[in-house]
Amino acid sequence: MVYVKLSNFLISHKYNISTVDHSLFFKHDGKYTTTILVYVDDIVLTGNNLMEISNITNLLNSFFHVKNMGDLTYFLGFEVARNDTDVRIIGLK
């Protein structure tokens, strides 16, 4: 039931559901892309438009009372490393 609410919420804010993975949502706006991955009770949010990331984070918080855990460092047992140009999965935790 929560997935349906979240899915409807994201769709109402112009996000599309991936045809490959129904836990993956994305929004294209010109040269900008924002991606949201939902896994059980975790949400991974990424993109190249900081204004959209801030906006959708605030909207999610006002509707669902989410907690921002900061930059992603581990996900599903994988360590995530980043620098100014890219993000890499560097190994198992």
CA-CA gap between termini: 32 Å
Write down the overall geometry: globular
Q: Name the poorly predicted regions.
A: none
Strand tally is: 7
For the residues shown, what is the average pLDDT?
A: 88
Structural class: alpha+beta
Query: Strand sequence of the main sheet, in spatial order?
Result: 1-2-3-4
In DSSP terms, counting alpha (H) and pi (I) runs of 4 or more, how many helices? 2
Radius of gyration: 14 Å
Proportion of residues in helical segments: 25-40%
Main sheet overview: 4 strands, antiparallel
How many structurally independent domains? 1
Order of helices and strands: HEEEEHEEE
Q: Tell me the strand percentage band.
A: 35-45%
Describe, in plain words, how this protein is organized in 3D.
The chain starts with a helix and ends with a strand. The chain has a 4-stranded antiparallel beta sheet with strand order 1-2-3-4, with helices on one face. The mean pLDDT is 88. It has 93 residues and is an alpha+beta fold. It has one domain. It is built from 2 helices and 7 strands; from the N terminus they run αββββαβββ. It is 28% helix and 38% strand. The protein is globular and about 35 Å long.
